[in-house]
Amino acid sequence: MTTSLTKCKKSLAKVWFLGAGIVFVLIFLQTLFGKYSGQEEKAWSWFLPTVIPNLSLIIGILVADAKHVLSEDERKIDPFLFKLALSLSIVYFAVVLSTVLIQPFTDMLILELLERSNLWLAPLQGLAAASLGAFFIKTEKS
Amino acid sequence: MVITQKSIIRNLMPYYFILLLVAGCAKKHPGTTRSAPDEFPAFPWPPPKASAMANLPNKFFRTSEEEIVHLQDVDSRLSDALDSAGYVEKSYYAVPDGFALVARLEQINTDGKPKSGSDRWAVEVGPVREFSLSAYLRALFTGEPGYFRLIVFIVTSQPFSQSDKTISRSEVIGWLSGGFNKIPAEVGMRLYSKEHNCTALIYEFEKKREEETAQTLIPGRLSAKTHLENSEIWNGIRRE
Fold first, then answer.
1. How far apart are CA A50 and CA A56, in angstroms?
2. pLDDT score of B29 more than 70
3. B141 CA to chain A: closest CA distance, Å?
4. How far is A76 from chain B (nearest CA, A)?
5. Helical (H) or strand (E) element with B235
6. Residue B182 DSSP label
7. Do B140 and A103 touch (CB under 8 A)?
8. What count of other Cβ atoms lies within 10 Å of the Cβ of residue B162?
9. How far apart are CA A73 and CA B114, in angstroms?
10. Beta carbons of B141 and A36 less than 8 Å apart
11. Helix locations, chain A, DSSP H
């Protein structure tokens, strides 16, 4: 495998930070412009569990990596697991963003849609988290 | 011939029964009697505080000073204008020496033009149907305020002011079903005298999509004339 482990981790971290950043800005602007009509805490209660668990995992690993000066780049990486984790992360954020961006065209109110989105976001988030975990654990063991 | 009390009763009995029968029929078929103006539901008087108000020129209703105009003629002119502007549903109420004509609550654009299609009569703010970047961004980031309008024409000879009471959107929705479907004949036959005037009261409401209740806009964003012009009613009433 030619791709280094550090590069893979950075790619995954970029996807998660960029995705979470875009959704954060959207919710922040909606809060500022009064989209939630006094129920802002409900929107933020939806946003935080959507990104924080996986972001915490990635940050934890990046911090742990920074402490170890190992020849990580020489470790073998399972390209399938990396591609799976990356694809699921991208799909997850595409769906999260679509949920917020598509609301003006739906008959549902924003908070109603955010609440209902847990139906499709929870399984996707579980899959993305599992693939991230599998990628990192397998890499550590190899 | 001896006329006894018994024979009198016997002779009069058939007439008495006929009288009872006629009276009974009249009671069973109230449609055959004319509605008394007393039953005409009264419009809140003085009218609740409106977002905008305009007195329509009397030349809209009479071509010359000598022309005899009845209230039903004024009603016809208003009704025709409303019909042609799409306001098919309306309701009539009694006001002192005249009548009030209430049109159905509608949803309008920011310029006072009615929304198109079913959105016009929807009581809730709907999603973005006609895409434009500004409309989309407004809907995405803001509370998407929807504007609602109800027009009331008051035809009366009495001068009036508006009360301090502010009316809610849910109350004005009830006005459409609370009044008569047409002007009673007794009221319609009254003369539209030189003292009479037709006043348009505009009740405008703002409701954000995410909010439960609508806010009454006092004063309104637009003038009453702008509302009437952009709803196509002004041109409909105006005599050419």
1. 12
2. no
3. 5
4. 45
5. helix B233-237
6. S
7. yes
8. 14
9. 65
10. no
11. 5-32, 40-67, 79-101, 110-141
CB A110 within 8 Å of CB A35: yes
**Between B186 and A64, the higher pLDDT residue:** B186
Q: Is some CB atom of chain A closer than 8 A to the CB atom of B144?
A: yes
Interfacial B residues in 80-119 facing A (CB < 8 Å): none
Amino acid of residue B144:
E
CB of B229 closer than 8 Å to CB of B223: no
Q: Residue A128 in contact with residue A94, Cβ under 8 Å?
A: no
ipTM tops 0.85: no
- The mean pLDDT of chain B is 84
Decide if A65 contacts A6 (C-beta within 8 A): yes
User: In Å, how far are A47, A100, B127 from A39, measured between CA atoms?
Assistant: 13, 16, 20
Distance from the Cα of B123 to chain A's closest Cα (Å) equals 13
Distance CA A96, CA A116 (A): 12
Contact between A138 and A63 (Cβ < 8 Å): no
Contact B210 A111 (CB under 8 A): yes
Q: Is A109 on the interface with B (CB under 8 A)?
A: yes
* List of chain A residues with pLDDT < 70: 1-3, 68-76, 138-142
C-alpha span between A53 and A130 (Å, rounded): 12
Q: Which residues contact A33 (CB under 8 A, 6 or more apart)?
A: B141, B142, B143
Residue B209 forms contact with A (CB below 8 Å): yes
Is the Cβ pair B127, A105 closer than 8 Å?
yes
